[in-house]
Design goal:
Layout: H1 10-14, H2 19-23, H3 31-46, E1 50-54, H4 60-70, E2 75-79, H5 82-97, E3 106-108, H6 118-126, H7 132-146, H8 167-170, H9 189-198, E4 202-206, H10 207-219, E5 231-235, H11 240-247, E6 250-253, H12 254-271, H13 276-293, E7 301-304, H14 308-314, H15 316-334, H16 343-362, E8 368-375, E9 378-385, H17 389-397, E10 402-407, H18 417-423, E11 429-433, H19 439-442, E12 443-446, H20 459-474, E13 478-481, H21 485-495, E14 503-505, H22 511-520, E15 525-528, E16 545-548, H23 559-570, H24 575-592, E17 603-607, H25 611-614, H26 618-624, E18 629-631, H27 634-642
Parallel strand pairs: 1-10, 1-11, 2-4, 2-5, 3-4, 5-10, 12-17, 12-18, 13-15, 13-16, 14-15, 16-17
Antiparallel strand pairs: 6-9, 7-8, 8-9
């Protein structure tokens, strides 16, 4: 790892006549950017934690990248999305590199599923495991690309369909990885990625990879993905609680049993140790798994597994049979261990299935909430930590010199109390940097007063009529965002027939395709739910209106939300005020944050839930939002778009 020559202090670099003003072709002095950069620089130097809310337009990526590079320490930057990760590596870092006197040592790392496995590609070429002409065509694309790629990252292949079934057969996930025993180990894209990380000052990852690494290190400090580092910067830090909960939890599904069956059967044929006995063992294992998972409710969605002891008592035989067949499969495979190196990772997967099942059905750990989710043909059993603050405190904040949390949405009502409590970070420096835009001139917040409470049956029909009126004034050019998929469908069915603008609906195409079509289709309207509330950037007139149906309160019937609310109540708190309102305020800021992305953007933010004006708690939302111009009159919306 090398230490690049410093360009200047943060104050000098971001000052009105500093280095950035001389470098950047479209330079605009941003006092908030300079203030944030100084705070980041100071936190790293003083070995302190820092929470920064940086409003839209601050230029926060450069505000943390420059001090991080200047620190001379190895620093991990963790982003909320792969898109932001790639923007940092392919746009921001090359811009800075032009002006540093020595090469910057920066790399990016993604999860193993994003990279190709050379050995799988060569095996598929020699012993085809592909089905149909479409898979063969996609394989040819991957095989030719593998010969020239430096990184092996799927994102490089622009001609491979997002829905291609071939990639899952050729990616570098751990499921069949033999590690150093693989003939391609020295040329492996994962090996090369790790080498780049060890040579780098700045390592750019996403939250999922970061917490996967942290969770792996929980059991073995030497088993991690990332090399040792001194500090971490979390961009889009408001997502951390949910992502950490996923990786410090326990899960299994019927799909995992199907996949292990498929992989063992395929390997046994490839390596010549297939037998009728092994086939029967695998068939019985999958049958027993199907029988157990079929015992759960087939209704789509998530529900708590509150009566696990009673369930286990009622279905003890099905559970015992599955565990027995897992152990029989393990025993059979161990007897063949010398037949192929790939058997070792398969044994590890079977052992993990045993441990997961036992925890999910037998554990009485009260710090977890146990739940089941049905998605299509999938049945997923989960155990999620109710409170990740202790885990984050012990595994992250107490271990590192500096952790920096930044996002446009971390403060609620002007304070970080909610973020501190949920993250387990009682002691940290804090900073709120206002947005760089003139929200009062650029944006109008409209809350209609005539609509009923969203919980009333008439709300859907009347909200649809109001949306039609707003869209006619905005001439389309809108996101209509919903707190539930069902509500989205019902209102879409009403509105799409009443307007003349092109409409797009989440779920009808991949997210990236819908966004591209929205950007390229004049006056279009996109109807969507949670995944479009954040990380979406459509600057310019193409997006001139964001309509949100309800205040985005977490659904209290969700098992994880319910468990967290009960935990707060048992500790003497008030779940609605301590958890639901702050979480909803942050989510609302995220949704509204889609609209104003540059100083030239103008638009209307419409919230159809007038509880924000009629309930006392509504003031917390107003105190959390930027200073938008506010109206309850639809005539003001019409005038705004007529300007």
């Amino acid at each position: 790892m090398t230490t690049p020559t410093k360009v200047s202090s943060a104050r000098q670099f971001f000052s009105r006549h500093g280095a950035l003003s001389k470098w950047h072709p479209n330079y605009e002095h941003r006092p908030g950017q300079a203030e944030m950069a100084e705070a980041v620089e100071s936190a790293i130097a003083d070995r302190k934690h820092l929470i920064v809310e940086a409003g839209t337009g601050t230029g926060k990526t450069l505000a943390y990248l420059v001090p991080a590079i200047n620190s001379g320490k190895r620093i991990v930057v963790s982003t909320g999305t792969k898109n932001l990760q790639e923007q940092l590596f392919f746009k921001d870092v090359p811009f800075l590199q032009k002006h540093f006197p020595r090469p910057l040592q920066v790399c990016y790392m993604k999860g193993r599923g994003n990279y190709a496995c050379r050995q799988k590609i060569y095996d598929a070429d020699n012993e085809p495991a592909l089905a149909g002409l479409e898979e063969m065509g996609d394989f040819q694309i991957i095989r030719e690309w593998e010969k020239t790629t430096e990184f092996g990252d799927r994102a490089e292949i622009k001609t491979l369909p997002e829905s291609s079934s071939v990639w899952n057969k050729l990616d570098a996930r751990r499921d069949l990885c033999t590690g150093q025993k693989c003939p391609q180990f020295d040329r492996c894209f994962i090996t090369l990625m790790h080498q780049r990380a060890f040579e780098s000052d700045i390592i750019i990852v996403n939250h999922h990879l970061f917490f996967a690494d942290l969770a792996i290190k929980e059991g073995d400090e030497f088993a991690g993905i990332l090399p040792e580092y001194h500090a971490v910067v979390f961009d889009e830090a408001h997502e951390i609680e949910d992502v950490a909960g996923q990786y410090f939890g326990i899960s299994t599904s019927n799909y995992r049993f199907q996949e292990v069956h498929r992989d063992i059967a395929r390997l046994s044929r490839q390596k010549g140790f297939a037998s009728p006995e092994l086939d029967r063992t695998l068939e019985r294992l999958e049958e027993r798994a199907d029988q157990l998972f079929a015992l759960f409710d087939e209704i789509e969605g998530r529900e708590a597994l509150e009566a696990r002891p009673a369930f286990l008592e009622q279905h003890q035989e099905a559970y015992d049979n599955l565990l027995l067949d897992l152990k029989l499969t393990l025993s059979h495979l161990k007897s063949l261990e010398n037949q192929a190196d790939e058997i070792a990772p398969l044994l590890r997967r079977l052992e993990e299935l045993v441990l997961s099942l036992r925890f999910l059905f037998e554990s009485d750990d009260a710090s977890y909430v146990f739940w089941v989710e049905r998605r299509g043909r999938g049945c997923f059993l989960q155990a999620t930590p109710i409170d990740v603050s202790r885990i984050l405190g012990e595994r992250l904040f107490d271990k590192l010199d500096t952790v920096i949390l930044t996002s446009a949405t971390l403060a609620v009502g002007g304070t970080f109390e909610f973020t501190r409590q949920r993250m387990g970070l009682p002691y940290a420096r804090t900073l709120i940097v206002p947005g760089h835009f003139d929200f009062e001139k650029q944006a109008l917040l409209y809350v209609p007063q005539q609509l009923p409470d969203p919980r009333q049956a008439s709300f859907t029909r009347l909200a649809a009529e109001e949306i039609v009126r707003i869209l006619n004034y905005s001439r389309g050019r809108a996101f209509v965002l919903f707190t539930s998929y069902q509500q989205m469908r019902m209102i879409y069915d009403r509105v799409s027939f009443e307007i003349e603008f092109p409409t797009l609906l989440q779920g009808t195409a991949p997210r990236s395709s819908l966004l591209e079509e929205f950007r390229s289709t004049p006056n279009s309207v996109l109807f969507a739910t949670a995944s479009f509330w954040q990380g979406v950037d459509v600057p310019g007139e193409q997006l001139s209106c964001v309509i949100i149906d309800k205040l985005p309160f977490a659904v209290p019937s969700d098992p994880v939300v319910d468990a967290r609310m009960r935990s707060i109540r048992e500790a003497g708190g008030k779940p609605f005020y301590d958890y639901q309102i702050p979480q909803a305020a942050i989510a609302l800021k995220q949704g509204f944050g889609r609209l104003i992305r540059s100083r030239s953007d103008r638009g209307v933010l419409a919230l159809l839930d007038n509880r924000i004006t009629k309930q006392r708690y509504g003031q917390i939302f107003f105190d959390s939002l930027p200073d938008y111009r506010f109206t309850t009159s639809l005539e003001d919306v019409e005038k705004f778009f007529d300007v």
